[in-house]
Amino acid sequence: MFARTPRLLLRPGWMEDAQALAMAIDDPAVVRNLARVPSPYGLDDAEAFLALPQHPRLPRLLIFTRTHGAPRLIGGCGVHLDEQGDPELGYWIARPYWGLGFATEAARAVLGMARAGGLPAIRAGHFVDNPASGNVLRKLGFRFTGRIEKRYSLGRDAMVDSLVFEEGEDDRMSSDPAMDLYGDSWPVAA
Fold first, then answer.
1. At what angle do helices 43-51 and 18-25 cross, to 10 degrees?
2. Which residue from 21, 134, 138, 151 could staple onto 162, CB 3.0 to 4.6 Å apart?
3. What is the pTM of this model?
């Protein structure tokens, strides 16, 4: 699976990407917003991730810029099965590229691939102290369900409140409490 957007190339990770992947994601400000990524994140972690088999209906792609010179790895985006076996969207962007719309652009492409592959409704979530990720989800047409679940964050080595989102806009759904606490001022997008 590959995708091109106006500014990005999304493709599966290759073993040759291990060094760039480790360098891009090994930032405490990034991994603290992710459930399944250890901190610190080293070359061995990158190689283990890149060695995972690709599921034909669950896109798991690295994000590269393609607008200025050689492509540069700036993040990752994919759909995986959550603890209940339901499809869940995940993404991260390296800190130098926060606030540029790359997460929304990449996730929109991945969701298109997932829908084309016949995946049922996809859910997503973000930690309560990462409201920028909620902004990304709302731009993609997700809505906050009103549920807050505890999720383990490998990078924090702690249980963290996570806001649960589902596809589809609905004005009757609860407001996002992270936005009530932090507003639009946080630049974190992962």
1. 120
2. 151
3. 0.88
